[in-house]
What does this fold into?
Amino acid sequence: MLKKLSILITSITFLVILYACKSKTSTTITTSNEMTTTRETTTTTKETPNVVLRECKSVTQTLKNTPIASQEIIAKAEAKLAQLSLAEKAGQMVQAERNQITPEEVKQYNVGSILSGGGSYPSGNTPQSWVNMYNTFQTAALQSSSGIPIIYGVDAVHGHGNVQGATIFPHNIGLGAANNSDLMYEIAKATSEEIKATGLDWNFAPAVSVVQDIRWGRTYESFGECPDLQVSLVEQYIKGLQDNGIAATAKHFIGDGGTEWNANNYRNSDWAFKNPYAFMMDQGNVTISMEQLRKIHLPGYIEAINAGVDTIMVSYSSYQGKKMHSHELIETLLKGELGFQGIVISDYDGIQQLPGSYHEQVITAVNAGIDMLMEPSRWKDAINAIIDGFNNGKISEERINDAVKRILIVKYKLGLFDEPIKTLNTDNFNSEAHKELARTAARESLVLLKNEGSILPLKKSTNILLLGPGADNVALQNGGWTIEWQGTMDKTKAKGTSILQGIKQIGTGNVYTDIKDSAKADVVVVVIAERPYAEGIGDNRLLSLNSPTSLSENITALNQAKNTGLPMVVILLSGRPMIVTSEINYWDSFIAAWLPGSEGGRGIADVLFGDYDFTGKLPVTWPEYSSQAGQTINKENYNIKDYLFPYGYGLSYNLE
It folds into this structure.
């Protein structure tokens, strides 16, 4: 009890504002079929001094049934479709990885789309090299028998992260902490401008995943554990992309954030940094009721469809033991009940987790309602399987025509038939305006969890001892999906402003980075971190500061800081909450910085010195023990007394 009280006691200058005890929340989803799902849960609030808890709000939605494109565009797509042969249609239904296909093959097979997966980029990795590569592929597509341009996709999930020097924004978990829909629009707009600078057309974002267990390696791709965050933020992100000519993707349909531990039968732990828990959760099974699936995981898709999202990606995960790439929910719920009119695309090699031969996997996926197969290396086999499936009566002409029509509609909508060849324009690529936006986003994403004795804000003249692996490392600020799929530990590949640089730019005191200089300092700031990771590589059962996704230097730096006897400020760079229960009593202040991106150093310095206040609130519950990792505010009998910090927690200075 004393431990928890020491964590929660904050400055008496803060205003005590508590949200109602035993507040009731409900979710109502209304579709065109007047389907309504309502359930009430009771949340008991403990007396938390000086904190405003963000609520998990009720969600009420009505489908708008807005056409995805104009009648003129639809008519053009239908006219083009009528001209195509079976082989040309089949070619449109596949997406190949850029390094697994040649321009000549694009021309020969009428390939519909190309992607760059995480870490896939042309030689040089500059905007110019991207534009040159795109135009080479596009020229080949225009010379094909169909003359249909390609659409090129990329995972620009927190800025155009595949490209060296791009502006990197906070990952979604930080944006969920900020919960600013206007900011989301501007981030998406800036991202679209940097995507367009490299010639591309399609962004595999946003993730509308609702994380229900922070052991999941994709936690940071989620805005948080309450579906109202997805509803609040998804629309403006999609509009920010699509208003500026980049197709958006809501992903991963449906329930990817609700997989259970040790429920993945396709795991491969021989990856990256040899995490023994890799893929113990990601791509696994979801077993909740249909009522709960609709309540928790569906609202983000309704919001995306209402926003006119062009594409939706299917999840690797299973629902009730059946892989989503073969699940009837694609046709019955997504395309039927919700009336989605855009492209449904598979995830990277996702169909290969289905039963049967490769031909059978393709046929099953297409018949389930998948319109485009992301088959990076087996795209040619996929084309043949579609053709054979039709010839053998296993795939109908109606299903193929529906898929290709959807693809053509999006291509016409993007103007690819009008301006297929791109010109280099880097005016907005990593511009000063984008850097300032990234700084603002980082600043708003920060959550102050402890500030004993009002140690923060620091005076700008404070002499600081700065320790820890994240103190001067932009790569750790960026996390996964940056330059490489798993991110990088190579600081030379990560451009931006580190925390050390940010403090030096804003503060006027001395900054020491050698423990030998501790006697000269007034305070010690320790920046601890998770290593970069992506997807199931980041699955982590323990979540401790020395667990597989953490850095060994964390404990060393914390022990050094504790031994100085100086007031201690700890900043955590991570994709999720970590278990800090045994360490936090030694810390005077604790900041959850998430993965703040390339300008995280300046954003953090802004609030450390009090130029701006903390405004972020926890988008996920912060457990006291790893055994609580699957407890969220969506669960029955959620009681904020049980956790280190409850959902919606976050302190502020209350600056005038």
Q: What stands out?
A: Confidence is low (pLDDT under 50) at residues 1-49. The first strand starts at residue 23 and ends at 30.
